[in-house]
Design goal:
This protein is an alpha+beta fold. It has two domains: 1-31; 51-152, Rieske Iron-sulfur Protein (3-layer Sandwich), CATH 2.102.10. The chain is built from one helix and ten strands, in the order αββββββββββ. The strands form three sheets. A four-stranded antiparallel beta sheet has the order 5-6-7-8, with no helix packed on it. It has a three-stranded antiparallel beta sheet with strand order 1-10-9, with no helix packed on it. Bound molecules: FE2/S2 (inorganic) cluster. Residues 93, 95-98, 111, 113-114, 116, 128, 134 line the site of FE2/S2 (inorganic) cluster. Residues 52-151 form the Rieske domain. Keywords: 2Fe-2S, Iron, Iron-sulfur, Metal-binding. One of its GO terms (molecular function) is metal ion binding.
């Protein structure tokens, strides 16, 4: 009798530990990795209206250069520091959040996780290679002031 109760309580304890681990895991996955505006690193999109800046005096200096900052993937597509010389999209893949990179040689934005591909206007070129389905990328408005490139998340 006592042994049975002990085993039951042990089972319950293990179940609680597993549940706690699952809840913790789910919670962290669901957290919005939105970096602060102007901050470094990639990640998902930020809140609508958030502005993300890049210093063109030291970043995106050459055509084909790209960087992820504040949830925005910035790509230089032409010379000069006009807004039209750049493209800004969400930095994480709509499929499952993989990091997006610019592939200059083939002029596509490609996901590092399942290799989906997109144009600079956000259209899908290739679906994920895991059999899943992605959606078009968000493309953000850009403005240049001095040497500051600003994307406004929408
Ligand atoms: S996460 Fe990008 S294709 Fe799957």
């Amino acid at each position: 009798m006592e042994r049975n109760e002990f085993i039951k309580s042990l089972g319950l304890g293990i179940a609680l530990v597993c549940t706690g681990s699952c809840m913790t895991g789910c919670g962290s996955k669901g957290d919005d990795p939105t970096p602060s505006p102007g901050g470094g690193g990639g990640g998902g999109g930020g809140s609508a209206g958030t502005k993300v800046n890049v210093d063109l005096g030291s970043q995106l200096l050459t055509v084909g250069a790209f960087l992820a900052s504040g949830g925005v993937l910035f790509i230089r597509t032409a010379t000069g520091n006009a807004a039209s010389s750049f493209v800004a999209t969400q930095a994480s893949c709509p499929h499952q959040g993989g990091a997006l990179n610019w592939v200059q040689a083939s002029n596509v934005i490609q996901c590092s996780l399942h290799s989906s591909k997109y144009t600079t206007t956000g259209s899908i070129v290739a679906q994920p290679n895991d059999g899943g389905t992605t959606s078009a990328l968000k493309v953000y408005a850009l403005a240049v002031s001095g040497t500051t490139l600003t994307a406004t998340i929408s």
